[in-house]
Every structure is written in C-alpha cells, then in structure tokens.
Amino acid sequence: MIGTGRLEAFSDGVLAIIITIMVLEMHVPRDPSLVSLRPLLPVLLSYVLSFVYLGIYWNNHHHMLHVTTRVNGVVLWANLHLLFWLTLVPFVTAWMGENAFAPVPTALYGAVLLMAAIAYYLLQLTILSAEGSDSVLRAALGRDVKGKISPVLYAVAIASALVRPWIADSIYVAVALMWLVPDRRIERALTGRMENAR
Amino acid sequence: MIGTGRLEAFSDGVLAIIITIMVLEMHVPRDPSLVSLRPLLPVLLSYVLSFVYLGIYWNNHHHMLHVTTRVNGVVLWANLHLLFWLTLVPFVTAWMGENAFAPVPTALYGAVLLMAAIAYYLLQLTILSAEGSDSVLRAALGRDVKGKISPVLYAVAIASALVRPWIADSIYVAVALMWLVPDRRIERALTGRMENAR
Amino acid sequence: MIGTGRLEAFSDGVLAIIITIMVLEMHVPRDPSLVSLRPLLPVLLSYVLSFVYLGIYWNNHHHMLHVTTRVNGVVLWANLHLLFWLTLVPFVTAWMGENAFAPVPTALYGAVLLMAAIAYYLLQLTILSAEGSDSVLRAALGRDVKGKISPVLYAVAIASALVRPWIADSIYVAVALMWLVPDRRIERALTGRMENAR
Amino acid sequence: MIGTGRLEAFSDGVLAIIITIMVLEMHVPRDPSLVSLRPLLPVLLSYVLSFVYLGIYWNNHHHMLHVTTRVNGVVLWANLHLLFWLTLVPFVTAWMGENAFAPVPTALYGAVLLMAAIAYYLLQLTILSAEGSDSVLRAALGRDVKGKISPVLYAVAIASALVRPWIADSIYVAVALMWLVPDRRIERALTGRMENAR
Description:
The structure is a homotetramer of 198-residue chains. Chain A has 198 residues and is mostly helical.
C-alpha cells in the first residue's frame, strides 16, 4: 500500500499538459486581420468545451483522491487507464474544431468522453475496493447519479451526432454544465463524518 | 474545504508548460546565417514580454496562495478560469510576434491580458470570500491599486493598438514594469501581523 | 545525501510530458470521415504500446523510489540517463507507427526499449549501492527475473524485427504484459519486513 | 520570506518540459530506412549535449536550493531569469543540430550557454545575499572555480565558433564533462557542518 501523493502529482502533471497542449492546435493565422480569426472560432469553442471537461476531471479527481487514504497497483493502473483516454482529448478536440463540428468527429469526441467516463468509474471502483465499504468516499458518492447518467447521455450524443451534430454538441455542453456544479457531496460527507466524530 | 497544495501544484504545472511551449512558436530558421534570425526578433521580443507577464502571474499567484489557508470548489473554478485565459497567451504572443506588432494582433494581445487580469481579480474575490474579512490576504491587498489600474490601462492599450500599436506596446511594457516591483505588500502584512501577535 | 522528493517530482514531470506529447504525433486528419482515420490505426496502436511501457516504467520507478531512503549524485545521473532513453520513445513510437511497423523502425523501437531497460538496471544498481545490502529494495528485488529476462527478449526482438517485424511486435506486447502484472515484490517485502519488526 | 518548495516545483516543471520538448525537434523521417536517420545524427548529438547541460543545471539547482532556507522576491525573479535563458536552449539546439554545427548556430548556442551561466551566477548571488554570509551555501561554494571558469570558456568558444566550429563544440563538451563530476562541495560542506555541530 502506497500513499496517494505521487499518484496525484503524476495525474496533475498529465492533466496540466493535456489542457495546455490543446492550445497548440489553434494554429496561428498568417494574416494579421480580424477576419483571419474567424475559421478559428469552432476550434476555440471546442477548446473551451474540452478545457471545461478536463477541469471537471481534475476537480473530481482532486476530490476523490482527497478522501482516498491508500492506493495499490490496481488503482495505479486504473488511473493510467483514465489518463490514457484523456490524452486523446486534444486529438478529438482539434479534429472536431477544425471540421466545424462535422458528424464523424463529433461522434468520435463523444466516444472518447464515454471511454473516459467509464475509465473514471472503474477507477472509482478500484479505490472503493481498496478503501473498504465504510470509507468516506463510499458515503460521499451516495447513489452517484451524475456518474451513472453521463455515459448514457454520451451514448445518445454519439448516435445523434451522425444525423444531427448540434444535438450531440448540446448534450456535451449540458453534461459539462451538470458537472460544473461543484461536487459538494464529498465536502458534505467529510463535514458530516467530522460532526459525527464529535 | 481543501488544502491549497494540489491547487498550487496544478497551477504551477500549467504555468510552467505555458511559459515553455511559447518557445516552440519561435520556428527554427533553415539558413544557418545571422540574417535569418532577423525576422525572429519581434517574435523574441513578444516572447520576452509574455515570459515576464507569466512570471508576474506566477509570482503573484504564489504570494496570494501562500497566505490562503483553504479553498473550496468556487476557488478551484476561479483558478481554472484564470488558467484558461493564460493558456491563450502563447497563441496571441505568436500572432503578435509573427506580424511584427501589427494593430489587430496587438489589440488581441491586450484583450487576453485584460481577461486574465479580470480572472485574477475574480480569483482574489473568491479566495477573500472563503477566507473571511480579517484574513492576512485582505490586510495584504490594502487598496490594491495595481490590481485596479491594470485593467484600465489594458483597455486604453486595446483602443490605441488599432491606431498606434506602439502606444499599446509601451503600455504593456509599462504595466509589466509596474508589477515587476516585487509585491512586498503581502510580505509586509505577514511581518506586521507576526509583530502584532507578540 | 539528499531526499528522494525532488528526484521523484522531476521524473514524474518528464514521464508525464513524454506520455502526453506522444499524442501530438497523431496528426489530425483534414477529412472529417471515418476512412481518414484508418492510416492512424498503426500510430494509435504504437501509442498504446508505448503508453503501457511508460506506465510500467512510472509504476516500477514509483515502487523503487518508495523504498529508497536517500540518493546521491550518481543516482541523480543514473536517473537522468534512464530519462534520456525514455525521451526517445515518442520519436521511435511515431516512426514505427507512421510506417506501420516496418522492419527498421520496429528494430529501433526495440533498441530504445533495450537501452531504457539497461538504464533502469543501472539506476537500480546505483540505488542498491547507496542503500546498502540489507535494504528493503535488495530484499524486494529477489532474483529480479523480469529485470534480467527483458533485455534478452528485446535483443531477440531487434534481430527478428529485420526479418519478421510481427515477431518483434509480439515480443514487445508479451514483455509489456509480463510487467503489467503489478510488481507486488516490493509490497510483499515491505509487509514482510514490518512483520519481522514486530 | 517564503519557503523554497514551490520555487523548486516550478523550476522542476520548466526544466522537465524543456528537456522533453527538445525531442520534438527531431522530426520523424518519412522513409522507414536506416539511411533516412543519418541526417538526424547531428540533431541527436546536439540533443545529447543539451540534455546533459540541462541535467547539470537541474542537479546544481537541486543542490543549491537544498541548502537554501528562504527566498524573497528578488530570488524568485533571478530564478525566472535563469529559466528564461534555459527555455531558449531547445531553439539553439535545434538550429545547431539541423545545420550540422555550422559557425553561426554554434556561436549562438554558446551565447545562450553564456547567458544561462551568468543568470545562474546572479541567482547564486541573490540567494547568498538572502541567506547571509555564514550560510551553508557560502561555505559550500568555496572559491567556486567551475562557476567562474565556465563563462570564460563559453566566451572563447563563441569566438572560435565563427572560424573553427569544432573547437567550440569541443569546449562545450569539455565544460559539460567538467560539471558532470557531481558537485560534492555542498555535500561535503553539509557533512563538515554537521560534524562541527557535534
């Protein structure tokens, strides 16, 4: 059993790099005019969307690891598995942005989000299993409605992307907004536990 | 409520990457002659300017978080919002440099600086709200003249960039110099508090 | 003698960057069609393979440093030597992927893996020498079968790559799977020692 | 006065990124043949040289900060100034490598090394001034022969690069080897101090 420090540090490093190199896909236009920025607008929009998603992952990861006391080899690999799917975000973001939210890139974007959501769920399972059933995390998650509904919404988005990409994009935005509401569950559970301990 | 450690680590990571990947925009010339470096001069100058700005942000961020004792979900997102605008710095730096400080890129550069300044101000507000009114940070900021004057100067610079870019560039340099004077306010407030505590 | 903290932080940083910039070699296709992704398949496959290898290195490095109590200058350089070979992984990964596992790139991929394995072995030796013969690490390694068999398998793979690349690729996958089994040796040795100490 | 932790973390981040993105300048050849790697040989050689130099800087920085107890605003900026010159290393490394050690790029490489050496010296001065004259660092540095001779050698190399680049390259290698001998001065001074304290 190993502390969570280095796992957090490594994940932070990877997330910080992913979030930053996405900007490299916004290629600097040659012309110094405002008009030349216009084709970059969808690229910027898809960047904003992915920035928010990665921020959500960092935030939730931060909260989850905060109440995790120990990790084992399986947790380390479940974490790397999550990071793997997140490293593909810059690729699908750029492809979707450069093609102005065309059907196939929009569907692939959802597929990567879906895989990342599944990977996050698996990571959660491995941590819960290492922590035991009376852990703070177990209490904090409750019924984990958001975690269960997100993959379903991504699946709907992927299907609709091929016929009406704007529906898929709206779903991506809606899911992000749903998560943006800060995850107070863990903070609440922690406070509750501390109060119970008195 | 959560400690500031991982927030600092993540912000450091993103700032370190932003500051370093800006160099990737200085494309290596094919010719091994001194003359071939000349078109890179404005790119280098804009890089130096942005490096100093990011250094200022890192420095001030460092000082602010140093006197912050706890963060909540809102602070985490206010921090991500600041990082978002800072990740756009490499893009506007390259565009301004490659077009030798042309009007529109120079104005956009100021716009990103303006948005980052506003984001920093919002981050400060959220931390102050989490810390309470008798916090060290509250005392340290005082009237926060620099923080209030900078956005005004950026706005002036954006307007003047479209007619006389060199005025805007001078303002950017002047604001940077104004901030370069290390922020002794917090150090002073800390010392004062410690003396009062005796 | 110096603590291991900053060595771990620096290694984590380099490994996180290597693992993330590899994705930049998956060039975004111009066409928004599924067909245009097909040439990227070998690139993706080689990326997955390298991601797993870097994950293994991070994992083993993590475990090894976890039971290391102090490092000296020689260890710092042995660690940099390992990082040097690992920084070449994105290059050989891209070359192998873009050429769909052609003989020479596949052989060079194995050569970099071989050099990294040797560098890891040297790092282990320098740490063992700094720690002393009754260290936890010494006990944990045991006969270190995996560490000794891997270079041999890489050498076989390099030779076979030039005639039958798929044999080499299969060996790379097999070695990765062999290591993927989490390294419980150190965890076991730690537990054993703690039990002995009672 | 502020602790050294975040200064080290930020510097580690920047150094880790510099050392890793240099590899991105080794452009993957299209052809899967051994011959197509040949033009990359000078690029690889210049990469190895710069990797060793950045390793030396990281090592020395690590040792210096290890015996530093507090930093102030001036130290933070002296550190950023050093990082600035080091961020230019990937640029000059690529230019020198891609032009097979031609005169002007080789001279510019030396100029960046010279500026980095001066910046390191200034950083050392500001830390010494913050630490006081009876600090461990003061004792550790002794006469600081290496630190004083390196800039002279770089200046000689820059001048000779324009007529005989290979002389400059030999000097760069020689200076690197001179520093590669691990800096036992600080370790010795620390040991000595601890022995005196008994």
